[in-house]
């Protein structure tokens, strides 16, 4: 078997991604191109992603992103051997744009089409940077749309959700807290920066679902967000200054504490020695710092891909596509549909 070129198309939220991965005869993977066009600035003034705006932006950005990826990889469209596309989960209209484009390319080229799971793609992204995963590992997936703990026993065959958020996603909590602190959207980066000047122990914000009777691996961030809002309101009502950096740092500490504590507990309980953290919130400096400390103490190998691979992109979709091709999985065919609520 010779090398194969896998094209990955991503359009589940506000990033239009086209990535190309070379799958070697030995199963090795090389990232050749990863082109992302984001519509985040168009959503900023609304404080969150507007589905109609996202769909339209995908339609405009899809073909130019594809062309740039092919150019960057220095390959012709005709050389592509298989096409992978996000079939879900995600925004319904946004998914339709990517899947329609992928079908058109697959039909024109007469090449197999793989509808893939966006969440599996986030985990697969790490293999582009750090190589194959061990037989069993745990993945903590934290972004604006998802907060999940996944037991991965084969990227192409067995990914099981063992925990998830019961309300807001971790990134969503960052975005909402940023809004109430008058910081720009998306809120993760400005809170991360501001928190560096504050004290994470200044305010004891609640750690959701950490009581003895609570679900061991589930998360809840909505109470934390409300608690930050109430704390700020009380200060303002008393005419006192709000120590913004301390609020940001203490909120961030609460998020990082719960995420890392639950992930490490799951690793211990399930006898897993590798933890992968991915998704936009994995770019958070306190989360990766605290995870590194706690994993080192627990003898767990921590893998966090670079921020560019953590946020939504086409390379991660090409990567999971390449894992499916390598495993000899059945292609989806041109009748592929989208599923906005696709479970992992
Ligand atoms: O993975 P992603 O790009 O898109 C989704 O699938 O949602 O994640 C975006 C989320 C946003 O909520 C953003 O505020 C958050 O990731 N984020 C961060 C940081 N950078 C991005 N959260 C905390 N700290 C950061 N440095
Ligand atoms: Zn995502």
Automatic annotation (TrEMBL):
Function: Required for the formation of a threonylcarbamoyl group on adenosine at position 37 (t(6)A37) in tRNAs that read codons beginning with adenine. Is involved in the transfer of the threonylcarbamoyl moiety of threonylcarbamoyl-AMP (TC-AMP) to the N6 group of A37, together with TsaE and TsaB. TsaD likely plays a direct catalytic role in this reaction.
Protein name as annotated: tRNA N6-adenosine threonylcarbamoyltransferase
Domain Gcp-like: 30-318
GO cellular component: cytoplasm
EC number: 2.3.1.234
Catalytic activity annotation: L-threonylcarbamoyladenylate + adenosine(37) in tRNA = N(6)-L-threonylcarbamoyladenosine(37) in tRNA + AMP + H(+)
GO molecular function: iron ion binding; peptidase activity; tRNA N(6)-L-threonylcarbamoyladenine synthase activity
Domain of life (superkingdom): Bacteria
InterPro entries listed in its UniProt record: ATPase_NBD (IPR043129), Gcp-like_dom (IPR000905), KAE1/TsaD (IPR017861), Peptidase_M22_CS (IPR017860), TsaD (IPR022450)
Keyword Protease: yes
Needed cofactors: Fe(2+)
Family stated for the protein in its record: Belongs to the KAE1 / TsaD family.
Parts of the chain that traverse the membrane: none
Cofactor detail note: Binds 1 Fe(2+) ion per subunit.
Compartment(s) where it occurs, according to its Swiss-Prot or TrEMBL record: Cytoplasm
Class in the EC hierarchy, top level: transferase
Positions bound to Fe cation: 118, 122, 312
Main location: cytoplasm
Record organism: Actinosynnema mirum (strain ATCC 29888 / DSM 43827 / JCM 3225 / NBRC 14064 / NCIMB 13271 / NRRL B-12336 / IMRU 3971 / 101)
Any one Gene Ontology BP term: tRNA threonylcarbamoyladenosine modification
Binding site for substrate: 141-145, 175, 188, 192, 284
Protein keywords: Acyltransferase, Cytoplasm, Hydrolase, Iron, Metal-binding, Protease, Transferase, tRNA processing
């Amino acid at each position: 078997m010779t090398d194969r070129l896998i094209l990955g198309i991503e359009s589940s939220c506000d990033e239009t991604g086209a990535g190309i991965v070379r799958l070697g005869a030995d199963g090795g993977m090389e990232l050749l191109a990863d082109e992302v066009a984001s519509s985040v600035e168009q959503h900023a003034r609304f404080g969150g992603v507007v589905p109609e705006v996202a769909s339209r932006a995908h339609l405009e950005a899809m073909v130019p992103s594809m062309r740039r990826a092919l150019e960057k990889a220095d390959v012709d469209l005709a050389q592509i051997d298989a096409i992978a596309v996000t079939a879900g989960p995600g925004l319904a209209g946004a998914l339709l744009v990517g899947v329609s484009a992928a079908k058109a390319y697959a039909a024109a080229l007469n090449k197999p089409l793989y509808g893939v799971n966006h969440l599996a793609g986030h985990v697969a992204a790490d293999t582009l940077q750090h190589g194959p995963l061990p037989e069993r590992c745990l993945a903590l997936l934290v972004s604006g749309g998802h907060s999940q703990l996944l037991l991965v026993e084969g990227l192409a065959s067995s990914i099981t959700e063992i925990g998830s958020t019961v309300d807001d996603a971790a990134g969503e909590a960052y975005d909402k807290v940023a809004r109430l602190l008058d910081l720009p959207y998306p809120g993760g980066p400005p809170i991360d920066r501001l928190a560096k000047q504050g004290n994470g122990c200044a305010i004891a914000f609640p750690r959701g679902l950490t009581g003895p009777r609570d679900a061991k691996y589930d998360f809840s961030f909505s109470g934390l967000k409300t608690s930050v809002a109430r704390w700020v309101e009380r200060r303002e009502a008393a005419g006192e200054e709000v120590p913004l950096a301390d609020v940001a740092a203490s909120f961030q500490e609460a998020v990082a504490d719960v995420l890392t504590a639950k992930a490490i507990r799951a690793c211990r309980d399930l006898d897993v020695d590798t933890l992968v953290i991915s998704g936009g919130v994995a770019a958070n400096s306190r989360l990766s710092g605290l995870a590194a400390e706690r994993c080192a103490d627990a003898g767990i190998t921590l893998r966090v891909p670079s921020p560019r691979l953590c946020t939504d992109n086409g390379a991660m979709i090409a990567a999971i596509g390449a894992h499916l091709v390598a495993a000899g999985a059945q292609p989806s065919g041109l009748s592929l549909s989208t599923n906005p609520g696709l479970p992992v």
